[in-house]
Design goal:
This protein is of the alpha+beta class. 26% of the residues lie in helices and 26% in strands. The protein has eight helices and 14 strands. Strands 1, 4, 11, 12 and 13 form a five-stranded mixed sheet that branches. A hairpin with a 4-residue loop joins strand 12 and strand 13. It starts with 30 loop residues before the first helix and ends with a strand.
Length: 318
Amino acid sequence: MANPSLSSVHIDRTLTNVSTAYFQEPGGYVGAMAAPTIPVSSKTDKFWVFDKNDSLRDRALERGPGTESAGGGFRLSTDSYAVKVHAWHVDLDDQTLANADDGLDLEAAAARYNTDTIRRAHEADFLATAFVTGVWGIDLDGTTNFVKWSSDASTPIEDIETQRVAIKASTGRNPNTLILGAAVYSRLRNHPDFIERIRYSGGGSMVTREIMAQYFDVDKILVADATNATNLEGETAAYSFMATDNALLAYVAPSPGRMTPSALYSFVWSEVSDGTVTAVGTTRIEIPERRVVRIESQLAWDIKVVGTDMGAFFEDVL
């Protein structure tokens, strides 16, 4: 053996410029985009609801010379929200922090883990609140109401168009957002409805979200493709998409505000969310008696369906 050898001139150590970790791409969490954020200053409160029928009824009358104008009023009611505080922390003791190799920023890593944990909880709440049956004014399923989109004989573009027109006719607003489960989006990209249309339109051979949105006549398509470990710690690892094989067509307010309808709103308690509204707040807390640094993240929200008539839910589409 030649001396010196390769092993004698180098001692393996951890790199400082690279490491690996699995975090969900932020775009995979669609809840924050589907439910516009409304900052609130109290844990519970109410908001005004203007009567839809009064708003959409044709009531103006012709006025004759010297006569009074026709007139009337409008009805008001209230709805309420109640935010829940969600938090998660990682404790790092001083010995572990002091012994960590260069390039291993444990505090930054803990903050990243916390943020992803809170975002996943928000996404799970959104899916349980809005991506389920029994919530929206229009509930359809692939067993009885339409041909499942997994079949080449199905007509997803016509199915969506029918409900788009129905929502527009009953609310005066055109649904602008289509939310798809990951498997649903994957199937639609290869559905004959789209392949045939783009083949003869000169739009290329790839069905993108933008092209799909044009055919569905919506502003945007959100793909709920966040993944989740479904096993308990210590069990055999198992993973799946958080969203099921469903779809939601809805009107989402582009600019939330007064007298602005929307299918969903997310009421966020900014004072408790570490002073933030759209981002997860993270704080560094020193616990001297334990010689520990706590990295803690927190966000307080209530995802609420405020316009059941502004959504059409498609269940079990594949």
